[in-house]
């Protein structure tokens, strides 16, 4: 045990230590200036070392072992006044950094951490305050606490403020708890900082008390920011989205020059300098020479590592003065800067511990200069070598072209995993037409998928797929990405594939791409369709020289429900074709069977009178204005159908209950009326009744009118009550008794059907 830590090498300021005791995982390193403690830790082990010991030969006695095997798995560790840890379950533990033994210290085992809080996602220690994100009972809170020691060992949390964070996008990300995707950063604002950034948060007040800007993320792709002060407690904070990145964010750090800047590093090797002033929308972006596994900001220098090499970047955001220098350390797992000693402390994947001064020139690797090369005039003395050089130049040109293709392929694979970005770039919609001539009236450049004769079939519907790419600033990039790509469309109904289409995309069609698809509906009688639209791109020779990879660059599903199949053109039904028989096929079969076998069998023609299913929608007092909303129809249908429905539904006869509307959805008839007798049932003056023999169509149209009447429920707030709970319970009890009676007494179906309609009307009564 006396050889657990060996001192191996010392050269100028460079030291390399070999840790030989058994480790369960590679070590991370953390440091705090106030107590000058260096912490080496992994999932289950924690070692402490005083930073002043780095200048002397280190032995086992220099280390203080906090835990050789903790009872929990450490997810995050912070060195503050005390040692703070979060496990994978979100529990916050604390350990007093009282290395010297005292009477109080003997009361507790050194392996015994204090459990202070639960449901913690991320913590940050800033200006002797503990900032944390807490997910509790489905709500997200930003906590600010102080750590108060009862003695030298036992610690308690003193709450300063606890505010609720409300944002639909943030709560959606938190539906799956991913602690490793959380980012939390804090910075205190002075008066000039606050004046520069308050336009971002739409703040009009002046700085009256210390304000903190809190940067948070829950997917390492999108950053949000909130402003909070120590006096606010129990308030609701609305995060403002400040940045969305194409790859994972590693860290966020504040840098104060003339103004406040956020330095955001991406794991792909990109560093973003985000000014927090009027130039907020023009960030400065720099691309480093390698990926980022660890990065810290030291004055005007950026020190980073990709896990193999370690680099120092100066003047990073200046194209002319930027400079990169490589350090000698290799296979770096983690590193930190000790302010008191001015040294870097690095851990590696091979149990090595490096320490060195960042200003020591001997710690840098020097690039090969021109004097290290042999002059070409002494090496090449004839044309043969010149021709070989030209051949190599041509080969390099080919390699450059291949590299550009590979760049496009890598960009394609990256965007294929960011459908949220692709949905912002490409907008897709599908509209239904009864006549091909109505599509031509739109004045669009069309791509036809079938023979021209199939676009003039009176038994067909025509679907216009409209795709538009919003690429004003990145047209050249997307042109390279969409080269050699194809649009694949699958038309599905009840999980059955009805039709598939595949069209090649040309570069000149990127801005707008319109596809007209005919579909013969005579025998289908379909009232709902799903269009599965994908843009796929081939990446050649991925697995080997003969096998290609197809990736879905963009994917979108558009569902068309029953209201999209409402027929507006009935004139075609009055046309009589002389070549078609007067009787239908069903009628001819019936006549043939009756003539041939009527003397042997009693043939009964089944009536086609089906039961009408009805659904109801409660109307508001202003329902007439809502039903006459022309913009709603135009947003959902093409111009012809929108004009037809607006004319029918907004007519005075229909609105005043003097007539009902009959619509054809596919081959089904649908009746719509407004109940408004005003005597037998006062509630009936505020209901729409939708009836059809097909209950699925009736329900679908009922939902359509519900969205129309309630304006897609945009006026309703979260937590708003929609029905009276006591009336609802009473209604359910009555329906339960009625159902029980139908079952026990075996009443006819008509009695059950009356009960079903009574339930719907009673349900409307309970609506608030």
UniProtKB/TrEMBL annotation:
Highest taxon of the lineage: Eukaryota
Protein name per its UniProtKB record: Jg11068 protein
Originating species: Pararge aegeria aegeria
């Amino acid at each position: 045990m006396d050889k657990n830590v060996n001192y191996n090498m010392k050269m100028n300021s460079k030291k390399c230590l070999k840790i030989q005791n058994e480790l369960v995982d590679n070590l991370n390193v953390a440091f705090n200036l106030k107590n000058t403690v260096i912490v080496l830790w992994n999932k289950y082990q924690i070692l402490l070392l005083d930073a002043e010991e780095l200048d002397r030969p280190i032995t086992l006695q220099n280390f203080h072992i906090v835990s050789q095997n903790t009872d929990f798995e450490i997810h995050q560790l912070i060195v503050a006044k005390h040692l703070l840890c979060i496990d994978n379950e979100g529990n916050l533990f604390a350990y007093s950094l009282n290395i010297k033994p005292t009477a109080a210290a003997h009361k507790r085992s050194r392996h015994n951490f204090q459990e202070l809080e639960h449901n913690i996602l991320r913590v940050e220690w800033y200006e002797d305050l503990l900032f944390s994100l807490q997910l509790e009972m489905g709500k997200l809170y930003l906590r600010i606490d102080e750590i108060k020691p009862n003695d030298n060992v036992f610690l308690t949390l003193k709450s300063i403020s606890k505010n609720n964070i409300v944002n639909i996008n943030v709560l959606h990300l938190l539906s799956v708890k991913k602690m490793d995707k959380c980012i939390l950063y804090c910075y205190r604002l002075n008066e000039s900082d606050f004046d520069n950034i308050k336009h971002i948060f739409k703040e009009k007040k002046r700085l009256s008390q210390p304000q903190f800007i809190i940067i948070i993320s829950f997917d390492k792709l999108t950053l949000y920011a909130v402003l909070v002060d120590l006096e606010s407690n129990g308030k609701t904070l609305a995060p403002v989205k400040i940045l969305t990145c194409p790859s994972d964010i590693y860290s966020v750090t504040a840098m104060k020059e003339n103004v406040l800047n956020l330095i955001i590093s991406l794991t792909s090797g990109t560093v973003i300098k985000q000014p927090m002033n009027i130039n907020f929308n023009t960030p400065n972006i720099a691309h480093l020479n390698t990926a980022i596994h660890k990065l810290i900001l030291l004055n005007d220098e950026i020190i980073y590592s990709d896990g193999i090499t370690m680099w120092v970047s100066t003047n990073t955001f200046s194209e002319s003065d930027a400079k990169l220098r490589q350090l000698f350390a290799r296979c770096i797992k983690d590193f930190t800067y000790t302010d008191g000693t001015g040294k870097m402390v690095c851990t590696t994947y091979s149990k090595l511990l490096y320490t060195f001064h960042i200003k020591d020139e001997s710690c840098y690797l020097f690039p090969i200069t021109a004097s290290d090369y042999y002059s070409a005039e002494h090496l090449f003395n004839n044309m043969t070598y010149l021709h070989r050089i030209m051949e190599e130049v041509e080969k390099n040109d080919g390699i450059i072209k291949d590299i550009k293709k590979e760049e496009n392929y890598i960009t394609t694979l990256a965007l294929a995993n960011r459908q949220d970005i692709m949905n912002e770039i490409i907008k897709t919609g599908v509209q239904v037409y009864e006549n091909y001539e109505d599509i031509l009236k739109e004045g669009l450049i069309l791509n036809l998928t079938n023979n021209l004769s199939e676009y003039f079939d009176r038994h067909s519907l025509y679907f216009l797929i409209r795709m538009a790419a919003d690429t004003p600033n990145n047209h050249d990039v997307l042109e390279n990405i969409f080269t050699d790509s194809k649009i694949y469309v699958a038309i599905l109904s009840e999980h059955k594939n009805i039709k598939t289409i595949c069209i090649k995309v040309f570069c000149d069609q990127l801005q707008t791409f319109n596809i007209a698809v005919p579909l013969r509906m005579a025998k289908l009688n379909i009232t709902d369709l799903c269009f599965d639209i994908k843009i796929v791109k081939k990446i050649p020779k991925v697995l080997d020289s003969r096998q290609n990879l197809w990736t879905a660059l963009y994917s979108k599903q558009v569902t068309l429900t029953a209201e999209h199949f409402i027929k507006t053109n009935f004139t075609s039904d009055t046309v009589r074709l002389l070549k078609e028989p007067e009787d239908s096929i069903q009628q001819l079969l019936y006549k043939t069977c009756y003539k041939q076998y009527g003397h042997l069998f009693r043939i009964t023609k089944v009536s086609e009178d089906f039961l009408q299913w009805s659904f109801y929608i409660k109307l508001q007092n202003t329902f007439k204005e809502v039903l006459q909303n022309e913009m709603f129809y135009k947003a959902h249908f093409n111009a012809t159908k929108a004009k037809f429905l607006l004319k029918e539904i907004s007519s005075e006869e229909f609105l005043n209950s003097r007539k009902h509307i009959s619509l054809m959805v596919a081959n089904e008839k649908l009746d719509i009326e407004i109940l408004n007798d005003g005597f037998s049932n006062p509630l009936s003056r505020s209901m729409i009744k939708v009836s059809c023999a097909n209950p699925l169509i009736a329900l679908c149209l009922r939902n359509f009118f519900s969205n129309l009447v309630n304006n897609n429920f945009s006026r309703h707030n979260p937590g708003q009550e929609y029905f009276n709970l006591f009336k609802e319970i009473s209604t359910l009890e009555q329906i339960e008794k009625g159902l029980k009676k139908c079952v026990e007494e075996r009443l006819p179906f008509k009695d059950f059907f009356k009960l079903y309609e009574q339930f719907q009307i009673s349900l409307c009564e309970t609506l608030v």
